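Assemble and predict.
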Amino acid sequence: MLEIMEGSHAVAEAVGRCRPQVIAAYPITPQTHIVEALADMAANCEIDADYITVESEFSALSACLGASAAGSRVYSATTSQGLALMFEVCFNCAGMRLPVVMSIVNRAMGAPLSIWNDQQDSISLRDSGWLQLYAEDNQEATDLHYLAYKVAEDHRILLPSFVCFDGFILSHTYEPVDTLTQEQADSYLPPFRPYQRLDAADPVSFGLFASPDYYMEFRYAIDQALDKARSVIPEAGKEFNEMFGRDYSGLVEEYRLDDADVAIVAMGSICGTVKDAIDEMRDAGKRVGLLKIRCFRPFPHKEVRKALSGVTTVAVLDKNVSLGSRGAAALEVRDALYGSGVSVQGYIIGLGGRDVRKRDIASVVAKAEAGEGDIYYGLRQEVLR
Amino acid sequence: MRELRIHGRGGQGSVTAAELIAVAAFEGGVFAQAFPAFGVERRGAPVQAFVRFDTKKIRLRSQVYEPDYIIVQDSTLIKDVNVFLGLKEGGIAIINTEKDLSYPFPKGVKVITLDATSIALKHLGLPITNTTLMGAFAAASGEIQLKALEDAVRRRFSGDLAGKNIAAATEAYQAVKGAA
């Protein structure tokens, strides 16, 4: 049933229905409402979870790592500097093949300090071995948590997963969301069945020393699991769609792309604004479509190439920048389309919470058609003086 | 799609007003979206919050630049912030003030002024005008029903406090209806 609520509360409810056994998090804007709600739910025994209060994000994810290794379903949430403080533990979770699920309420990185949205935080962890899913609206933000646990805990995958959604723009927005009932959630997501766990009766070790004779194979194995996720995510998305009628079976999602000359590629909440802008451009006779990237890690190169093979121009919107290079998605899309002859133009946009309007999208499309790309869109020259 | 922009000062409950209006609109059977202009909300500083209403799912995520309605919680804001910026022709401005405003209002805009501070003080004992102005908005715009507004207020505030806020909203609703 559709109910209107704040994005953070919708996510907290969904996380509760995933039945995490251990939650450890450190509050940070704009993630705070989620962990406050979960702390309340745990304290009121509405969920059967141990909520561990910690003194830092490093400890939060370390507690999750240990609890996951001991065989518990675990949850954390963070953003920006908080995620940066978890950097080392992120790599360890992936390396130890622990299916931790963590919400990333996307926020810009300091300095200068910004509490506002872009996606630099999670993008900066793209090489850590975590799955990365991005939500367009609060419905998707809640649903992707069920999907993330399902895929992360699958014994073919066994990797941690970020569920990324834009700070404030989604987390602090009231809008209608259909939350699964506990029965529905249970029917989709079975209890966690660890592949192996810390057990005094049957001792194992996690994350030990690997000499040069072994290390590369461990890294290769993570990459192989991420590759398998390219088929396991659609499988889990298909099952979700069959049960609840919301389709997350694609690593990417197409919008009015069939006969498009120009394709916009984007991730996260900006996709909603892009869709409205596309409808207006279509009404004006422009053949424009959107390719939304739902899954950034593993990156769906094949799906992107297939979806964009018919267009002449691609405009990639990045709410991040790999400083000294380009936007992360633009780099991936250019790689996916290498040798296809399709023109790929990158646009760094909306950093640090700068608002993106429909007219900005139309302006990006005009620039892409004119071959003016690989730029920061909408820089204020008077600030640069 | 119709859009509302609320101007207030930190502490006046602009964000809560936006949320409760969205809740009331949704309960009335339309899609609604409410969000703040995310800032560093110091008490007294100018703040904004937004609501969208539509018969279909709302996808747009930008701030509101061309509102159909504005609510101004504090008329002293008018000299600091261009609260009328982008207000559509035929749009409605609801302004809390205790005096006759000599401000040159934009043409083609319906301006409704009311002394929401006095109404809030009377019912709540506090100059927090958000629920009072919500009642005025319901009457002036027709986007939300008074009953749905009452339900939304009851969901947010408990017992006595809910009753006081509803009384303030109802008085403003009737004042605006009566003046129309």
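The CA atoms of residues 66 and 86 of chain B lie 4 Å apart.
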